[in-house]
Amino acid sequence: MQSQNPFASLFSHYNLSLAVLHPSSSPSDPIKVSLSNLHTTDLSYECISYDRSKTFESLKIFLNDEETEISGPLVQALQALRKPDESLLLWADVLLGRTIQEQNEQANLARATLQNAQQTVAYLGSGNDRTSEAFKIVKTLAQWWHQAAVRCDFPANFAQATAVHMSSIISYFRAQDATKLHFNDKELWSSVLAIFESPYFESVQTISDLVLSQDVLITSRSSSIPWIDFKVAFRALVVAMPQMLGEIPSESLQEAFQRVSGIDIAVRRYREDNGLELLPMIQTAKEAKSADPREYVFAMLPITRPSKRAQETGRKVPKPVVDYSKTPQEVFTEAAKFIIEERQDLILWWAERPPNGRKMEGLPSWVPDWTAPLPLHTIKMNNEAKPSLRTWSDSVQPQKSLKVIENVLHLQAHKLDQVKTVSPMFTQENCRKLLLQEWQRLPNIPNQPLAEKVDKFWRTIVMNTGGETQALRQQKPPHKDMWLSFQSILAEERILELMNCKAEDITIDPALVERIKADPQCQLLGPQTGKSEAFEILLRKNSIGRRFFTTESGRSGMTAFEEVPRAEGEAGEADERMIGAMDGLPTDGLGGMMMASFQQFLRQQDPQAASVLDSLTERKEKARGVKAGDVIVATVGGFHPYVLRHTNSEEAEGESNIGGMEFRFVGDCYLHGVMAAEPFLTRNMLGISSWKTSVTVEDIRIV
């Protein structure tokens, strides 16, 4: 929407390519569009936002009198918007960007184009014969929410709502006439839910379109509702379904609500702060879909501003520009370079899958794959904790800037330790049994008290996180008595191991019960059993998808979330069984030598079988992530300990220093006794902590 101030655009004119949609009185007439370069002054035009979550079938229109194929959802939008007796001036990306150069130009003008439009039509799709009635239901829900919000003094920012606000809203909805929603009309409600669950909101471009647009109309067929009403109607639906209709929102509806709420938050924050940081918006975009992976970056560029860290320091780093001639790998690498050099930290490594979980090939190890799904859980970050690895990082002197030169990340690091052994991956099926196995494998450290060994092990396994339902930065360690529940699991699993049975066998085999009661070892373990539930909850919440490791100095830790998402065309069942069997192999040096010797023997006896095994070994190596010999470091600009792998193992052999060496990023990790920067602290006689001055950092490279 244009400003009413005549000086607003007086000295900032630009020419804008717009499309003229020609009128037609018959829906069956072909769609005709002509393009014009027009001056922005006094223009009144509409933007079309449509579903670009995947590649749709192309349909034909006439563009400048030439038959042209464009995406089906855009054709449907043009069909619905076409008037019988007057032309419509509009903007849509595909209409104006046919070549790479045109695409680049339109993308770079997107911010001004969307902000200056009279309105943006967000077209959900062609709907069905009940869509018009369904929109009336949506409008009723919106009206109820607006009325309830006034009566209950409900905050405009949904996140600020209290339990009292929600209770008042629920009471208001219970008092409404539920028959107005016609919930018994299943066909109508199928159309209502189709509006809220529209794939349009899954499209990554939808985020930036709605954030930048001043006035948005959610439209399907000939019906529409303003965005401001649509979003609150969705809130009302989530409240009304259980309270008035006796229905729990389906999983797909809850996911759709999260998407719409996420867009609403982005819109609000953009208005409040005149822009958003690139990294969190890319991470928001990851939840969406795009036929072109480059859009996870390109679609976010128009709504981003410099980070607050850059504003505080005055650092100016050129923002990436939209360039459709570049590959997805080039686009992701440029975006990662910008984020690191502008922020001067490594926060982009947090909440991302490590390199072993990537879908996209050809990326430097330090560049996240923003097309890969988010990990199920992450290592908790507490930026407000003091001390922390991040606050230690700020104390390092002399400190060099993080920089990327020819796709190589240059930074300073301090070697903390080196991986010695790594367990198989914890899964829902094996986590209890694997817990016992890793406890049994633990080496004895001279003069280490048993209580200390127990405490260190169980806290490492659950990453010292209690699992309370609190805010991310308020996670607390588990209670000190949790070791009793941990001990109970060990006792229960040891009994199953001694009896060579499963837990469910105990409930169906009376003879087994008698054997357990009569066994002397089981009798000793018996009093410890039956109290495992509390620790098992933490175990399943925090360890699944990770692996336990020990280090050369006797530390222990948990890897990043290393579970690799299964893609189309993955190995068949036979291959998976072979890979599963390989997962039990030791990952220390001896195990590696045994596997190498076996592979060499197999190449001589059966080259074809050796080829299959080599392929499986390579895949398993990728899926494994952390392995023995990997280096663990703390870095300038880092938040967690990071696991790195030498690119030249021969050069690194026997070297205690890492200065000047080249590595690949393997992932972050939980390293017990390090997360609060303990190795870098010293205390004086009064117990006051300060940073050690003897700690050295060395220049390294990550490729």
Query: Mind describing the biggest β-sheet?
Result: 9 strands, mixed
Estimate percent helicity. 40-55%
User: What spatial form do the alpha-carbon principal axes imply?
Assistant: globular
User: What is the CA-CA span between the terminal residues?
Assistant: 46 Å
Averaged pLDDT: 87
How many helix segments? 25
Low-confidence sequence ranges: 7-13, 469-473, 568-593
Strand content: 15-25%
Structural class: alpha+beta
Going across the biggest sheet, name each strand in turn. 5-4-2-1-6-3-7-8-9
Radius of gyration: 30 Å
Number of strands: 19
InterPro entries: HetReg/Transcr_Mod
Protein topology:
Layout: E1 15-21, E2 32-39, E3 46-49, E4 58-63, E5 66-71, H1 72-81, E6 88-91, H2 93-96, H3 100-116, E7 119-125, H4 131-152, H5 163-174, H6 186-196, H7 204-212, E8 216-220, E9 223-226, H8 227-244, H9 251-273, H10 278-285, H11 295-298, H12 308-313, H13 328-343, H14 389-395, E10 403-405, E11 408-422, H15 431-441, H16 450-461, H17 482-499, H18 503-508, H19 510-518, H20 520-525, H21 533-542, E12 548-551, E13 556-559, H22 573-582, H23 589-605, H24 607-624, E14 631-635, E15 642-646, H25 649-652, E16 662-671, E17 681-683, E18 689-691, E19 698-702
Parallel strand pairs: 2-4, 3-6, 3-7, 7-8, 16-19
Antiparallel strand pairs: 1-2, 1-6, 4-5, 8-9, 10-11, 11-12, 11-14, 11-19, 12-13, 13-16, 14-15, 15-16, 17-18
Helix pairs in contact: 4-5, 4-6, 4-8, 5-8, 7-9, 8-9, 15-17, 17-21, 22-24, 23-24
